[in-house]
Amino acid sequence: MARGRKHTPEQVVNLLRQIEVAVANGKTTAQGCKEAEITEQTYYRWRKEYGGLQVDQARRLKELEQENVVLKDIASGNF
To answer: Which string of DSSP letters, residue by residue, matches 15-59?
Structure first.
C-alpha cells in the first residue's frame, strides 16, 4: 500500500459510498475498508469530514479551505 497517497474529494466521497454499500450488504466495516484499500482509521476520519456530502459539495469544501488559507496569509502579512 502506498503511504501518503492523496485522494481527491471526489474519490473520498466515492470510497465512503462504496464502503457504506458493502456494510449495507452485510459486510463489516473492516471488510469494506479492506476492499477499498484504506484503513479503518482513514475511513472514520473521512466520514467525520465528508460524511453526508455530495461529490460537488466535497469539491467546494476543499476549494473554500484552500482559499481560507490564502486569505489568512494575506491578513497576517505573510504573502
So the answer is: HHHHHHHHHHTT--HHHHHHHHT--HHHHHHHHHHHTT--HHHHH
Instruction: Report in angstroms the alpha-carbon separations of 39 from 54, 73, 74, 76.
Output: 22, 33, 37, 37
pTM comes to: 0.71
Residue at grid coordinates 473520498: 12
Nearest residue to 38 via CA among 20, 55, 19, 56: 19
Q: How far apart are CA 11 and CA 5, in angstroms?
A: 12
Site of grid cell 459539495 = 57
Backbone torsion region of residue 3, taken as left when φ is above 0, otherwise alpha when ψ lies between -120 and 50, otherwise beta? beta
Nearest in space to 22 (alpha carbons), one of 10, 40, 41, 8: 40
The segments of the chain whose pLDDT lies below 50 read 1
